[in-house]
Amino acid sequence: MNLEPALEAFFAEADELLTRMEESLLQLESEPDNDELINDIFRAAHTIKGTAGVFGFDDVVHFTHEVESVLDRVRDGQMQVSNDVIGLLLRNKDHIGALVRAVAEKRELDAAQRAEGEAQMAALLALLGKQPDKPAATAVVAASADVSRSESAVSDSCANENWHLSIRFGADVLRGGMDPLSFIRYLCTLGEIVHLDTLFDALPQWLQLDPESCYLGFEIDFRSEASKAEIEGVFEFVRDECVLHIIPPRSQISEYISVLRALPEDELKLGEMLVLSGALTRAELDRGLSLQSEAASAVSAEGDGGPSAAPPQLGEILIESGAVGAGVVDAALVKQKQVKDTKAQEARSLRIDADKLDQLIELVGELVVASAGVQNVAQMLAQAQLTEASEVLTRLVEEVRDQALSLRMVQIGATFQRFQRVVRDVSRELGKDIELQISGGETDLDKTVVERIGDPLMHLVRNSMDHGIEATEVRLAAGKPARAKVMLNAYHEAGSIVIDVADDGGGLNRQKILRKAIERGLVAEDAQLSEREIDRLIFAPGFSTADQVSNLSGRGVGMDVVRRDIEALRGTVDIDTEPGKGTRIRIRLPLTLAIIDGFRVGIDKASFVLPVDMIVECVELAGSIRDAARSRGYLDMRGEVLPLLWLREVFDIDSPAPERRENVVVVHFGQTKAGIVVDQLMGEHQTVIRPLGKLFSALRGVSGSTILGSGEIALILDVAGLMKMAGSTGMTAAGITEMQGQNSREMSAPS
Amino acid sequence: MEIERTDDGDVTELKVVGELTIYGAAEAYGFLTRALSERRDLRVNLAQVSEVDSSGVQLLLAAKRAAEKQGHSFELVAHSEAMLEVMELLQLSHVFGDPLVMPAQAA
Amino acid sequence: MAKTIMVVDDSSSLRQVVSIALKGAGYDVFEACDGKDALSKLTGQKVHLVVSDVNMPNMDGITFVKEMRKLPAYKFTPVIMLTTENQESKKAEGQAAGAKAWMVKPFKPDQMLMAVSKLCLP
Fold it and tell me: What's the structural domain count of chain C?
């Protein structure tokens, strides 16, 4: 609507009012007892504030509000009209004028004006004693004749997807011009009345009837997306004069409960929790609280009031008055208890400086190495008693190691739970109906990992919501449920923790990705990529497919950052997408960053360590099989193709391979397996990971080093990195054959 | 609001003209009280009702109940558009049990 | 037929804003600048709703409602009173006078429209 003409009128009017205010203020100096003048001044401020608010000029409203409060006190005789007060009010008047002019000229106040405003504000607040806090609804609650508690046969929720409204109008509503019919008509604008029963059993005998009293009640089944507060708002003008129960649909109940669970772990009062979840409206809470205090004063009035005469609990009152169902109250109570329990648990636990913990773990690492040394010596000396003692020592050290590491283990659940709120808020923002499903929250992982996984997860979840989940219409057109799902799951697998971020959205648009990648020059125009390779392009640096840069993701900080964050944690990220069905991003992280069970292998005199969890089996490579494997680059493992990687070649070790035989260590990582060809297998070995120096950060296939019991140094192999190398060599080989056919045709094309 | 009364054999027909609302509720109540006191079958013609509110609805409901208690019939006929809208909104047709005839569309 | 609403406020710009919003929604609107002016404009015509400020010169909103209720044609006309949060005592007085619906200033035009619709849809 065009408010321009009204705006002009406002500015003219404000001028006039301020002039009048000034005149009256000056006159007030000589006639401090003239109530008419005070009224005039008050009305001027009041009118400016009220009108400015309608136009949304919040600065004017904010400031004038305090001026008005002071004037209100003067008017009520609570404050004397001194010359100082008049002086301040005159300055206030000038400042209101400045604020209005700034709005009229569509500019900000200058620094001097702002400072003046702040000084005046401080003076006003000082006059008012302090920041005037509105008393929390001082139980005025018009003693609505009988908040009929007899009608408490209110079930938890409706058995279906409709709201149920039960309303009994007070006798006087019609006389006050409030027609129940008009509220029901307005209700129709918020949704659909599925069924309505008009109740007239309160109608008296004809001769006792007062035709201007209202006797009607209604039971309404109502289908609507509106919130409980919105529905209650329909009846706001008769709220004190009717008995109203609003029973939410079943789906709404679970919504309340899930919001309750997602509430931050703060100690909140029961009522506040219910209001936050939307299950209870503010008005219902105020009503419940005043009922409670009434009941409490009734109890204390009864006199001795032993322990048995405790005032009723708020939860009971709310359920009994039908404001909220027992199920929701229970969920809130459970949550409340949880928070208390966590607090109690916190009291039982110690806070330890993380640095001290790291020092302990480092020492345990040294201990592990030392104990391995002892074991070595024992083996060499082959003395029974020493061997036995060293075995006991080794076992204890292992336990100490596990305990020490577990100190740093935390459940990922808390990290996951944070996303409940994120998903709830962001889905509202996006206008999509999205639910977050969490599983595996009890999965443990290293605290340092948990701390650093939050950001990548946030990015992935938001990315899913923003790009993955389609608009509701699109979903419905595709025959999918309107409510979309984003899933967070965590579990342990093969010495890693796996975190899945999945959605049931539209999946990746491969054509679009490929087009974009070509546009960005990330791949050649004629490149032949497999679906998997295309999918992985989204992790390429500087890649973003968002058509429009949205508030959430697509700010150019792309999935490559996620990938880098995860790789920095020695993890990997993988993508699995099915058009129309959804996308799953799988993050794999090492369980801990400190110590692993290692398997030592040797090439010539050098030792290398593989994480035991990643090893499937070991096989011998000799004879004709060895020759065949050598020439083909892979091994036929019981009919399965196992790509091989000769570690000697990877690290350019300049010594001849052993004459008779080599060994293959079959490792798996995620879905893929590969064989690593080594000279000797040297058995299991506890390995304390020491990071490589910066100098070696570019080194591929190695994730760290460790010191062996003998004092020697061994490199820890990065299985994921090695597999990528194995995969890419295989790929290039395959790629070359494919390309050859094409090249002959496209030879002349300029590249 | 005005109420026109005609006698049709054993039946008293009351024709409500204008708005059947709180403004005329007291008057309508008086009129109906007189009609009920005669202990005859009642028929209320609603063709000229321009507006109905909650007070009008409850007055009709109470009158029907009072008449039937006396053993007389109470019938609503020729619902105007305004009346039909309220009957539909409050799902009252089964309560009154009278056939509802949609007003003929003006050709 | 469009519903008729009377807007009573001493601020002409507020009247204008409310009028523009209500007319835009399909109501007929006429204005009065205080209680006295409002009473003089109530001449028996049908008014579906009155929106009135409390604090006005000449005749304040509550006196106006009391007087209006004496006129048979406006005995039951719904009234939305515009008030500020520090007028709780006025509210009790006003409700006794027959002004049941209260709305706190400042409000946005949309909020006004919503409040009006609850009492009478256009």
Answer: 1
